[in-house]
Amino acid sequence: MAPPTRGLGPRGFLTEEEKQNMPKVDSALIRRILSYLLPYRLQFVLVFVTILVSAVLGLLPSIITGRIVDEALVGKNMALLVRLLILAFVTLSASQVISVLESYINSWISQRIIFDMKNQMYDHLQHMPHAFFTSEKQGDIITRMNTDISGVSTVISGTLSNIVSNIATVVTSLVALFSMSWQLALVGIVVIPLLILPTKRVGKRRYALLTDSQAKNDEMNQLINETLSVSGSLLVKLFTREEREYERFVKVNEEVTRLGLKEQQNGRWFRVVMGLFTQLGPLLIYFAGGYFIITRADPSLTVGTITATVSLVNRLYRPVESLLNIHVDFTRSLALFTRIFDYFDMENPIRSPENGATPDVTDGDIVYDHVAFSYDPEKPLLTDISFTVPAGKMYAIVGPSGSGKSTIVNLIPRVYDVLGGSVKIAGVDVRDFDLPYLRSQIGVVTQDSYLFNGTIRENLLYARENATQEELDAACYIANLNDFIRSQPEGYETVVGNRGLKLSGGEKQRLSIARVILKDPKILILDEATSALDSITENAIQDALEALMEGRTSIVIAHRLSTILKADQILVVKDGTIAEQGSHEKLLAQGGTYRELYETQFRKILEIEGEKNSADRT
Known about the structure:
Blueprint: H1 16-20, H2 27-37, H3 41-73, H4 78-126, H5 130-135, H6 138-180, H7 182-190, H8 192-227, H9 230-238, H10 242-294, H11 303-323, H12 326-344, E1 366-373, E2 382-389, E3 394-398, H13 405-410, E4 420-425, E5 428-429, H14 435-440, E6 442-445, H15 456-461, H16 469-478, H17 482-487, H18 505-519, E7 523-527, H19 535-549, E8 553-557, H20 561-564, E9 569-574, E10 577-582, H21 584-590, H22 593-617
Parallel strand pairs: 3-8, 3-9, 6-7, 7-8
Antiparallel strand pairs: 1-2, 1-4, 4-5, 9-10
Helix pairs in contact: 3-4, 3-6, 3-11, 4-6, 6-7, 6-11, 6-12, 7-10, 7-11, 8-10, 10-11, 16-18
């Protein structure tokens, strides 16, 4: 009996968790599941035909064995014995070949259904709003995408086929048994309850042990993950906790070993008991058959019939046990589909409208008109944001941490949608834009630059697949990245690592900037885009960024005064509104929030930068 996955009991009974989360079975759910199966209905028919043929062929060796005993051995007919043995071999071979064919078709169907569902799921998740990915656990998304959908293969090639196969085996075996001797058939069937009851009892005991073992395994995996990860192992070393962590691991590992041994021993005794009960049926048949023959109670009964009956009864036990657990397999299969459908049913409020607008945004103003937004309905973040960024101008947004600066700019490419008011570009509400067109017109560089685990070239071409080498060089030159690339042995083919971990923060940021330069957008959003750069590197690309922003509408979230001073206007965000707006001098003179930020943040940063620059010059 294989160990269950989390929340999944062994075959034979449902766990309390499964009972509580039992899916609601209705015609809509069944039709939805069938919608994935119907395109392959002809293949399913072929599978069921092969299963039926295989079940019938599976009877023949037992029946032939009876003839071998009665006609060939008792009749001392060597020629007949050879013919019957050849016939038995042929039927066994044919049955195996058909089983292979059935398995192949089954696997083909299940893999094609998985292919269809994974494509549908990936496409669906790709278009889900950003809020979905900030609220859902990444592990859950991967589980639905891989484990759950891959589990459909077990449902198709396992549960569904096993049900049909077991029914075919039981029906054909019972027909054959009762046609040969109804008395012996009844004797063989009497043993079946003795097989079921121990399975249920021992199954629950083993599940309890497996649950405890799984909990300890989880604890051990957590310990391994924490202490042997890059950050965890460094922390252990810095605090010299190697011996302590080793003691913790030994303790948990000892518990895992103890529970594993206990579970295995329990399983061994279970198999011993089941083996005894399995042999009890044939013994009873031999006893009853011997009694009928010796006492001549059934003159038509032969030794060959008894032998064939024993063989058929042994063929009957396992399918019957499996069919008694159909409700468990059926419920788990429906639960698996329900989990997948839960994701498919998640609505995506940020969609591209039909016949969406595609206006020229080059000379269009960006207008925030009484915008309201909140991640949590009980905690409003933006309550009344109103301002206009004229086309071709650069506006800076400043404010205390957590005031919603990044959220404001994320409303432009519809990473989130406003809950009140509107954001317009060139007089058109961004919600009325064709969504891919809208986002193609906007370039965003964030503080946390994300890079794929590929080469520098692949990360750059993500902005524009058909970019030429000259265009790549030009973008990297503007972003002050070309010297770094030339210094690498692999040049543009240098692998940046997972999330760009092989690069420094400044190199990642410059690569991200080069990627946006390559995109050549009409609107620029820089969300503290130079925060990971040292002052020398920042100064080196500041002129390039200014040249890039020339003639483009730009919004910059900045923490450095040097960047803020270059803005055409400064917007100060506080308490969900634009508290102040104006030039640096004007806002300082007002003595409000901006002056407070200047005194507590900007001036200190400016002094530190001044000291660094003086040190560099000396």
